[in-house]
Amino acid sequence: MTADRPTFPPRHATGHPMAQALAQPLAHPLAHPSSPAAGVWPGQRGVAPASATPATSATPATPATPATPPPLRPDAPLHLLMGRRERAQMQRIRDTVAGHPALAGRQLHWHVPARAAETPAAAEQAARAAAAAGGLVLAIGGDGTINAAAQACWQRGVPMGVVCQGTFNFFSRQQGISPDLGEAIGQFTQALDQGLVRPVVPGVVNGQTFLVNASLGLYPRLLAEREAAKRQFGRHRAVALVSGLLSLLRAQRGQVLRLLERDGQGRERQRMTLTSTLFVGNNALQLERVGVDEAEKAGRRRLVATTLAPRSAWSMLQMLWQALRGRMGQHEAVDSFSCTALTVEAAGWRLSQRVRVAFDGERSWMHLPLRFALASHPLWLVAPPPQAAGQNAAPQAEGSAAPLAGRVAQA
Questions:
Q1: Residue 256 β-bridge partners
Q2: Least confident of 23-27, 144-148, 232-236
């Protein structure tokens, strides 16, 4: 449901201290100089702020894609980042890669973390080595591995390829990349040989990129319990779904958040909401599967935020049933809206200034306020043109080798 929630009352509405705390105005944190949205593409000039934006708030410059993507050499060294998983699965991946005819004669450098927690460090090592040698990074694994590689490559401007071996693989599916290990490697090498690289715009929350989603509240807890279930029962979709169901049915505690959103015209709006979770999506495919309102805008240089009000176990079951039918947005507890930037602050004393945030299946502690935005420069993806699009792709420059996206890939 997309109906706006009531805005908080002005400070003079009541003398109650809680009401005063909730009514304190937000000092337009979207204009904060450290905001990830407050940049432009390298070498590009910004666009003047929209007239609809209040004078006290600075509008981030509208990004424009660099004229040319980074150069690709078919003989460039490949730095392969593989996420941790069962020993037999890791050996299967290594054997498939080593025996793939498209990789014969290429320089391969493996980066395999000893523990899952060391994946970001391994990704940083791979991106640093690739940048120094004019090479590429090929990430092989689930959402967490892909995210770690994307963060490191995005920061250094290193092109990367993706071979998703996770549970749902929303990013690779939307990019038209095969879930089959051998086929995905073939797609990557074909794109590399043909010089096919395209820009993808990640979402960013407090400096951390996300390709699929980022959230706080119920969803990070759900992910933690899902990972525990996978370690015990195996990495299967059925395990993930059952674990998620049990998490939803547990008692929920709502929290009051103050949100400042910016739309595509630069207009800003504040709202106060009581929610058990805030979910910010950057992947139209995932949002469309469950029927979130405005899901298609996640593929048109927008983020789509969804809040879920605390409800009883029975109401949550009803919402889950509607999500399975692709109608989650029709549930009365669900509210969605699209934006180009979103700032989240605590309202009152119930929420700590330090919250756990989930991004692409990983989790980290962050300090409020949280600032969600589209990245200030693109991630360069080496892949064939997708049959359909919907990703946050940057506009294609004339003469660029980066292909534009089409419609959202259907599963």
A1: 274
A2: 23-27
Distance CA(197)–CA(68), nearest Å, equals 10
Question: What is the pTM (predicted TM-score) of this model?
Answer: 0.73
Task: Give the span between the Cα atoms of 107 and 217, in whole angstroms.
Answer: 44
Residues 6+ apart with CB under 8 A from 112: 81, 82, 84, 90, 122
Structure tokens belonging to residue 84: 């941790």
To the nearest 10 degrees (0 to 180), the angle between helices 237-249 and 313-324 is 150
Quote the distance between the C-alpha of residue 345 and its chain's center.
20
* 188 alpha-carbon distance from chain centroid: 22
Kindly calculate the radius of gyration of the chain based on its CA atoms and give it in whole angstroms.
21
**CA–CA distance, 290 with 288 (Å, rounded to integer):** 5
CA dist., res. 35 & res. 60, Å (int):
9
pLDDT in tens, 329-385: 888 889 999 999 999 998 865 556 788 999 998 889 999 999 999 998 999 999 998
Q: What does the alpha-carbon distance between residue 381 and residue 188 come to, in Å, rounded to a whole number?
A: 10
| Residue 232 half-sphere exposure toward CB, CA atoms < 13 A | 9
Q: Are 278 and 354 in contact (CB under 8 A)?
A: no
Q: Characterise 211 by phi-psi region: left (phi > 0), alpha (psi -120 to 50), beta (else).
A: alpha
Distance CA 411, CA 407 (A): 12
Residue for token pair 């992910």 = 223
Residue whose structure tokens are 């809680």: 18
Report which secondary-structure segment, H or E, holds 162: strand 160-164
Q: How far is CA 133 from the centre of its chain?
A: 28
Q: Distance between CA atoms of 270 and 135, rounded to whole angstroms? A: 45
Question: Angle at which helices 237-249 and 218-233 pack, to 10 degrees?
Answer: 140
CB neighbours of residue 180 within 10 Å: 13
Q: Residue written as tokens 């534009």? A: 404
Tokens 């990557």 -> residue: 188
